[in-house]
């Protein structure tokens, strides 16, 4: 897998990869990754068409999905921390 391009965005890191003729686009924010994979022969396999397909609305939708995953991870981490300290050893 090799990096073939990066797409500038103010709040997310967007990296375009290619492996065996297939394209993957990775969106990163808050240690969360959202990956889109394209099949061989997709009309978006050309990098310029791919870049132009990411309208502000689509990027906002992807960013909202990442924010939802980030909130879910925060809830899971909170539950783990709350349950970790439920019982303390009795000290005499």
Task: Provide a short characterization of the protein structure.
With 92 residues, the protein is an alpha+beta fold.
Features:
Viral Envelope Glycoprotein, domain 2, 92 residues, 4 strands, four-stranded antiparallel β-sheet, alpha+beta, elongated, 2 helices
User: What's the order of the H and E elements?
Assistant: EEEEHH
Radius of gyration: 19 Å
Strand order of the largest sheet: 1-2-3-4
CATH class: Alpha Beta
According to CATH, what is the topology?
Viral Envelope Glycoprotein, domain 2
CATH architecture: 2-Layer Sandwich
Count all strands and give the number: 4
Shape descriptor: elongated
Class based on secondary structure composition and strand pairing: alpha+beta
Quick one: biggest sheet? Answer: 4 strands, antiparallel
Count of helical segments?
2
Distance from N terminus to C terminus (CA atoms, Å) equals: 59 Å
Low-confidence stretches: none
Give the domain tally: 1
């Amino acid at each position: 897998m090799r990096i073939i391009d990066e797409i500038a965005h103010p709040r997310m890191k967007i990296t375009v990869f290619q492996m065996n003729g297939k394209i993957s686009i990775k969106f990163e924010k808050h240690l969360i990754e959202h990956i889109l994979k394209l099949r061989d022969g997709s009309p978006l396999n050309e990098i310029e068409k791919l870049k132009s397909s990411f309208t502000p609305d689509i990027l906002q939708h992807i960013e909202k999905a990442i924010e939802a995953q980030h909130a879910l991870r925060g809830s899971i981490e909170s539950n783990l921390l709350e349950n970790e300290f439920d019982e303390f050893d009795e000290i005499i």
